[in-house]
Amino acid sequence: MTLMKLPNLPARLRPLVEEMSGSRIRAVSESAFGKTGLIPLWFGESDRVTPPFVNEGAKKALDAGHTFYTPNRGIPALREAVAGYVSGLRKRKIDVENVTITASGVNAIMLVMQTLVSPGDNVVLVTPLWPNCADAVSALSGEPRRASLTAVNGGWKLDLDRLFAQCDDRTRAIFVNSPGNPTGWMAKPEELRAILEFCRKRRIWAIADEVYERLVYDRPVSPSLVDIATPDDPVISINSFSKAWCMTGWRLGWVIAPAGYGDTLGKVIEFNMSAATSFVQHAGLAAIREGEPFVAEIVEQYRQARDLVTQRLGGMRRVRMARPDAAFYAFFQVDGMKDSLATAKEIVAKHGVGLAPGIAFGPEGEGWLRLCFATSKAKLSEALDRIEPALS
Amino acid sequence: MTLMKLPNLPARLRPLVEEMSGSRIRAVSESAFGKTGLIPLWFGESDRVTPPFVNEGAKKALDAGHTFYTPNRGIPALREAVAGYVSGLRKRKIDVENVTITASGVNAIMLVMQTLVSPGDNVVLVTPLWPNCADAVSALSGEPRRASLTAVNGGWKLDLDRLFAQCDDRTRAIFVNSPGNPTGWMAKPEELRAILEFCRKRRIWAIADEVYERLVYDRPVSPSLVDIATPDDPVISINSFSKAWCMTGWRLGWVIAPAGYGDTLGKVIEFNMSAATSFVQHAGLAAIREGEPFVAEIVEQYRQARDLVTQRLGGMRRVRMARPDAAFYAFFQVDGMKDSLATAKEIVAKHGVGLAPGIAFGPEGEGWLRLCFATSKAKLSEALDRIEPALS
């Protein structure tokens, strides 16, 4: 247990939320508040602004007066566009009834958990993992159960037996983030098939967080549960406009799920945020319709960045890492490092480079650091020069 | 209990969410899907588009590259602007530490409930009330307890004894929406004082939903708990850009609370939606800085609309209503009407006017209908002509 710092408040807050640790990435970034000249590679965000054709989509929608409430599940045109986009990307026909628009990927995770998790239920998560997924389960008084990947030579491997052993009769879902944040790990098609089989048999949901599906360097798109599921399978796929189209600030995402699920999702959207921003949904249309050259361009940029970072970090004495085939993170093990939070704070203070501590992604991440390489080669080279003394 | 229609799904959903009834307003609007020429007065939304200076604020922010994640609690400039705005509106100095930006008013309600409600806790709500407030409590496995206003001559009166009698040792908060949706009821300063005293003594929170505070016709602004609270009082005020600046589609709101509360709110924002849309926050700045003439203009429009609607409805034989001094709804009792949902469906089918059924706001609302008068006099006159036969 962490020590609880109770604020001086006039009435009680919910103990479970009070005891949540808060983001350890933010703990590092806040430790460097006001520091100039630093290179921030701690957040999961490109340093490129949103491309102009997406901005144009928003502006045109504003000019056309799209400033009113939309349906909870999103404007029909965007739901149709997403259905077409996913159908083209995957080996399956996705219908508009399978699509619900959300106000970001993390919003979709929270909404989905609200439709599944009663107090005492559990969700089994493949870890290390972005902490928000477990926190959403906890906030509903559910139990997030961790099924760790196995670290092998600086990379990560899934142990299906360990994953399935974590499930019991209170398990409502298995949560798989592939390609994974922070690991860059990608589930193999046969692993996804085994997970789907298991979920079918147990009649529990497989939740696929696929926000990095386009940022893949060894094939066109990451393997997905959507590829192999039938329309009636218990698969919920969560996605976002943030990573593929550099739209982190826009807060727009979507869910693909069996047709009968959408009404329930629409109900919880009503009392969570009553739909995504209207003209942002229109901008999402522009992203999907006109965005393919942009996606190809950033994937090529990130591929080169990945190669640079892998080569440079690989040459540092204390670092162990495998070249990631997806996402935009170098997640690397540091020999002899016992406290990743302290190390990340020290690195930003001494060397002016912002990294995320592995402990931010769960106890399995202790001993590791995460570097987001979605920036220019010049900045990356400078950052790597700076941190080399600390890691050699 | 309503009959549960179980969708044909491959795995179980959460029973509590499955059993939620869904919006009864939407049940009416969906019953008229595809009907042409109807006048929709069912939703709580003006038919005016957002004013140009707000759109301009968003466009400038896009051009300036404000397309990245913002801090969870919002951009400092907007938090400062809201602090200044509320300080000017109320008799108290509000500091930037008291302000948190949210992705709409309903989003703020859900976030606040997450910081207070453990399973089995209850929140006591003054009703009839917009259903999302109770649903947010239910979604956290809490118990929404209803303390009904008393209907008196077509208007509503607060019974403080009844309100306080609903509170017990599992009560975490009293929720007061004043000016109220659907009633237009406004709490008197002495009533708010009594509620604050009670909450202080019991060490529970007073949550004030004040999204209609500017739409007031008998004084400059509605009485508020913020007027009378000290910085350390257990008061959480929830607000929105939707109503005062015609920004329903934008999804932007704020919370005013004791300084120590903000960090906890920031933690839940992280795994709910990780902040409001970046450039929408910049547009909010424009609304606050340049919006006062616009607010004055729509208040004058709504005042005239209110007078027209009150006079016309008051002349219909079966209608009983008091003139509302706030918000933009005529909430009226219909003599002999037993089923407001059926009546609202019948009115839209036969007469082409969309009204919200009173039952949508709880059992206390049965026998009533809600008409949103945030539209032109011409449309209102036409709508009133059409429904007169049904109500005379």
Q: What distance separates the N and C termini of chain A?
A: 33 Å
Multimeric organization: homodimer
Structural class of chain A: alpha/beta
Helical segment count of chain A: 14
Give the overall shape of chain A, derived from the CA principal axes.
globular
Q: What this model shows, in words?
A:
2 copies of one chain form a homodimer. The first copy, chain A, has 14 helices and 15 strands. Chain A has 392 residues and is of the alpha/beta class. In chain A, strands 2-10-9-8-7-3-4 form a 7-stranded mixed beta sheet, with helices on both faces. In chain A, helix 5 (105-116) packs across helix 10. The two termini of chain A are 33 Å apart. Mean pLDDT of chain A is 96; it is low at 1-5. At the A-B interface, helix 1, helix 3, helix 5, helix 6 and helix 10 of A face helix 1, helix 3, helix 5, helix 6 and helix 10 of B.
Key words describing this protein structure:
homodimer; 392 residues; alpha/beta; seven-stranded mixed beta sheet; 14 helices; 16% strand
Write the layout of secondary structure elements.
Two copies of one chain form a homodimer.
Chain A: H1 15-18, H2 24-31, E1 39-40, H3 52-63, H4 76-89, E2 99-102, H5 105-116, E3 122-127, H6 132-139, E4 143-148, E5 150-152, E6 155-157, H7 160-165, E7 171-177, H8 189-202, E8 205-209, H9 225-228, E9 235-240, E10 253-256, H10 262-272, H11 278-290, H12 292-314, E11 319-320, E12 329-334, H13 340-351, E13 353-354, E14 356-357, E15 368-372, H14 377-391
Parallel strand pairs in A: 1-13, 3-4, 3-7, 7-8, 8-9
Antiparallel strand pairs in A: 2-10, 5-6, 9-10, 11-12, 12-15, 14-15
Helix pairs in contact in A: 2-13, 3-11, 4-11, 5-6, 5-10, 12-14
